[in-house]
Amino acid sequence: MNLREKIILPLAGFTGLPGTPGPAADRSARFAELYRHAFRNSPVYREKYSAAGLSPDSVKELPDSIKLPFLEKEELSLPGIKAGNKATVVSLASGSTSGPGVNTRMDGSYLLKRYRMLLEILYSTGWRLGDAAFAFHPEEYGAAALFSKALKEGALGKIVFNFFQESVLYRLFHNRKNFLYSSAAFGNFSAERYFSELRAFAPRLVISRPDILCALMRQAAMKGLEFPEVESVLCVGNILSSSGKAALEDKFKTKVYNLYASTELGYVGLSCPSSGVWVHVDEDNYLAELDGTEVIVTDFSNYHTPVIRYRTGDAGELVRGRCGCGREGLRLKIKGRKKDFFENSGGERFYACDADEFLASEKELYALQIAGKTGALGLTVRPGGIAAGALNEIKNRFCGRFKISQDEVSISCEAPLSGTPSGKFPFFAMEHKA
Ligand SMILES: [Zn+2]
Q1: Does residue 421 sit in helix, strand or coil?
Q2: How far is the CA of 136 from the centre of ligand 1 (A)?
Q3: Closest CA to 97 of 422, 367, 335
Q4: For the chain, which terminal residue's Cβ has fewer other Cβ atoms within 10 angstroms, N or C?
Q5: DSSP at 295
C-alpha cells in the first residue's frame, strides 16, 4: 500500500479489492427497505405510490418492482423528493444541456459510498491511488465553470466541495490532470496538441467521453500521427460502439473499459475485458430494468434522495447469463439517448451506437452528425474539403446500411456541426419528439 492509499482507503472504507456480489435475497431486502423508507419519508413518493394504490408493504422482493410507477426526471428535482431530515452535503446539477436539469442531492454517508464505488471502478482498470490519470472534459465540467456557476448561485458549500474534489482529492491524491475542450474540438482541430499533452503527462489511465477520444483517434490515423501508449482507458458519458472500442484498443495499445454512470445514479455498471461494450450491472447496488427500449434504474443506496425506477432517457438492451469472464449476471448495452434516433421507412430506429458503428467503417471521416427529420436527413461530416464524388459514395453507403432512400438524405462537409458551447458533441440534431 502506498502513502496515498494508507490515507484514503480507510477513510473511504475501501479494501482495495473489488467486492463480490451478495445473494439475491439481500437485494430484495434492500429494495423493500428503500421502498418503505421512500414511502414513509418522501412526500413525492408517498403521494405517487398512494395514488397507485400501494402501501409501505407493497414491495417484498425484486419482482415487485413492476407494481411501482416510474420516476420522471422532473420529479427528481422536486424539493419533496427528499426523504428524511439529514443535511444535504452536496447538490450536483446535471442534464441541463439535454433537457430539464436535475439536482442530485447527497448526504454525507451516500457521498462516501459514491466515492467508494468510484474507487472500486478505478481499481478495476488496474489504476491505483497516486498513479497518473488524465481526464478529457468538456469545458462545462471545468473547475472555473463550476466555480462561477456556484458563485452565481451563492452556493458556498458547493464551492468548498468543488475545491476539495478537484484540488485536494483529484489533483493531490488521485494525481489527475484535467484537459478541457470545447465543441470546436469536433470542427477544425488538431489531434497533435491533445497527444503531446498526453505524452508529456504519461498517464496510467485516461478517462474520457468516447466521442472526443474516437474523433482524436480517427483524425490521428488519417494524418499518420503517432499514438501515445496508455495502459487503460475508461470511457464514460456517451456512446461507445464495438468498432470504436476495438479501434481505440488497437491504436492506443490499451485496455478500454466502458462505464455506465450518471450524476443522478452513480456508477451503474462497468465492462470487463470479455464483455465488449456491454457493462456488468452492479446488481448489489442497482436494479436495472427496461420499459420498451428505455433503461430504468433503481439505486439501492441513496436514502437521502431515493431514486426508484428512474427513467434514464437512455435506450438499451439487457441480457442475463454467463459472460466470457465467468461472471454470471445482468449485462447492459446502451444504444444512445432514447430521443436521439432516426428511422427508415420500415420503422427501424437507429441510435448513437449505430451512427458510431457507421463512422468507424468510414476510414476518411473523424466526425459525423445527423440532423433534420425522418424523410429529410442531413449528414454533416468531418474533415472539410472532401471531394463531391467521395461525399456521394459516403452517402450511398449510409443509405445502403440503414435502408434509406437516396433522395431522403443530403450530405455536406462544409456545414457547421451543431455542438453545444459546453463541448458536448451530439451525433444527432433531430427535429422529432420521441
Ligand atoms: Zn465479464
Answers
A1: coil
A2: 26
A3: 422
A4: N
A5: E
Query: Residue 318 C-alpha to ligand 1 middle, in angstroms?
Result: 14
Q: Does 93 lie in the same domain as 213?
A: yes
How many domains does the chain contain in total? 2
Classify burial at 91, counting beta carbons within 10 Å of its beta carbon; exposed 0-12, middle 13-18, buried 19 or more: middle
Please give the distance, rounded to the nearest whole angstrom, from the Cα atom of residue 266 to the centre of ligand 1: 20
Residue range of the domain that includes 132: 3-337
Of 337, 370, 388, which marks where a domain is finished?
337
Grid coordinates standing for 51?
A: 395514488
Contact 312, 262 (CB under 8 A): yes
Apex 394 CA angle, 391 and 397, nearest 5 = 155
In this predicted model, what pLDDT tens digit does every residue of 113-172 receive, in sequence order? Answer: 888 898 899 999 999 988 999 988 877 666 566 656 665 666 666 666 666 676 667 766
- Beta-strand ranges (E) seen in 154-306 are 176-181, 205-208, 232-236, 255-262, 266-270, 279-281, 286-291, 294-299
Pair 405, 380 in one domain: yes
Ligand 1 centroid to 270 CA: how many Å? 9
Ligand 1 centre distance from Cα of residue 285 (Å): 17
**Burial bucket for residue 23 (CB in 10 Å: 0-12, 13-18, 19+):** exposed
Whether 295 and 359 share a structural domain:
no
Beta-sheet pairing, 102-106 with 367-373: unpaired
Separation of CA 211 and ligand 1 centre (Å):
24
**How many angstroms does the Cα of residue 334 sit away from the middle of ligand 1?**
16
- CA angle 227-245-136, nearest 5°? 60
Distance 174 CA to ligand 1 centre (A): 26
- CA–centroid distance, 329 to ligand 1, in Å, is 9
Ligand 1 mean position to 331 CA, how many Å? 8
Q: What gap in Å lies between CA 194 and CA 366, rounded to an integer?
A: 15
pTM of the model: 0.90
Q: In angstroms, rounded to a whole number, what is the distance separating the alpha carbons of residues 112 and 71?
A: 25
Q: Which residue among 275, 307, 337 closes a domain? A: 337
The model's pLDDT over 380-422, given as tens digits with 9 standing for 90+, comes to 998 888 999 999 999 999 999 999 999 999 999 988 877 665 5
Q: How far is the CA of 407 from the centre of ligand 1 (A)?
A: 43
